[in-house]
Amino acid sequence: MTCAYSPEAYVFGSKENHDLLEAETNELLHFGHHFPAPQGGSYWLDDTGKPDLTQSIHTWITCRMAHVYSLGFLHGEPDAAELVDKAIAGLRGPLHDDEHGGWYPSISADGSTHEAGKVCYAHAFVILAATSAKLIGRPGADELLDEALETYDRHFWDDEIGLAVDTWNTEFTELDPYRGINANMHTTEAFLAVADVTGNEEYRERAGRIIDHVVGWARENDWRIPEHFTADWQPDLECNHDKPDDQFKPYGATPGHGIEWARLITQYALSSKARSEEGKQQLIEAAENLFAQALADAWNAEGTIGLAYTTDWNGKPVVTDRMHWTLAESVNTSATLATVTGKQVYKDWYATFWQYIDEYLIDHENGSWFHQLNKDNQVIGTVWPGKSDLYHATQCTLIPRLDPAVSVAPALKANPNA
């Protein structure tokens, strides 16, 4: 593989790095213009950015594309507002369950059938999408956000413990006993965005309650975060031991999630109006511990460059494939910690991550990023055929330029020329 950028372009804060970030933002936003389905919502994209009609239209992907093109609107991308509207039309139309409320996980590409169940992960992304669309003033966004928050509060948020449940049946009458931290991570992201956009600080402190649980569990597990739990929130460390590469519930620790959590924890620490300065510093130290442990366990762990997808509870890699999103989140967190702490180690990691992305992940021929590589950094598609939605990659071209205390969309609106 070859690199398209010079080594100077990987240096945090350099003009050359700004030029790289700007070029990649524009390339990614251009790549995704063909996502809208005629009835609303987002098609799955193939390797060249064209719709793959063999795949379903997913609520969470639709939400991510609404969010990304809200960022695109703030960045000046042509036709971005219309693309947001088409995603929102899917969320207010065929992806919405008019009978029982909430949103289906997915519908078929022709809209004729829907996937059963109601999942927290998708509903958290509805909140994020609606918040970003509201920020840029798109029609219907206020109503979508109101319904998304009401649905989430009624069915997913457990205020007694300060965490979200995971999966209901379609009718919202039977709750699955599984509890998962991934949905809570994206809930944290969405709640911080709600607080930043609406000014409702209750949601920021809900995010803080989730974070307190996560930091406690991570500290008890040598800074490796349990992903799966029983109905009474006991860690289920052996979940999917026999199916370690499950797309949404992989066995063991997921270092990329440890890194992603580290940034969200830092954002909360910087923005909370309820925490003491000592409490904020403790959270930033926890974020540093999560970042360091994830990289100690998973970076170059199998003798080849890259970040292993999962490890066991001793830090030994289990699934050694490299997923694009883990590198995008590594960029975000290294930039955030570099800004907040001023430590050179994070700037060094930032440069390392961008060099890897340039050499192995960016598809310099067809656009966007390859989603999945094996441990030898060869492109494979066992988890995700085609190209991923643009959420992780686009955010990592923007977050390094923005205020780490603020969610990405309002931070970009406040500083559109960053």
Q: How many angstroms does the end-to-end distance come to? A: 30 Å
Q: Uncertain spans, ≥5 residues at pLDDT below 50?
A: none
Number of domains: 1
Q: How many β-strand stretches?
A: 11
Taking the sheet with the most strands, its summary is: 3 strands, antiparallel
User: Approximately what portion of the residues adopt beta-strand conformation?
Assistant: 5-15%
Averaged pLDDT: 97
Q: What structural class do helix, strand and pairing data support?
A: mainly alpha
Instruction: Provide the helix percentage.
Output: 40-55%
Shape: globular
H/E element sequence: HEHHEEHHEEEEHHEHHEHHEEHH
Determine the number of helices (DSSP H or I, runs of at least 4 residues). Answer: 13
CATH fold naming: Glycosyltransferase
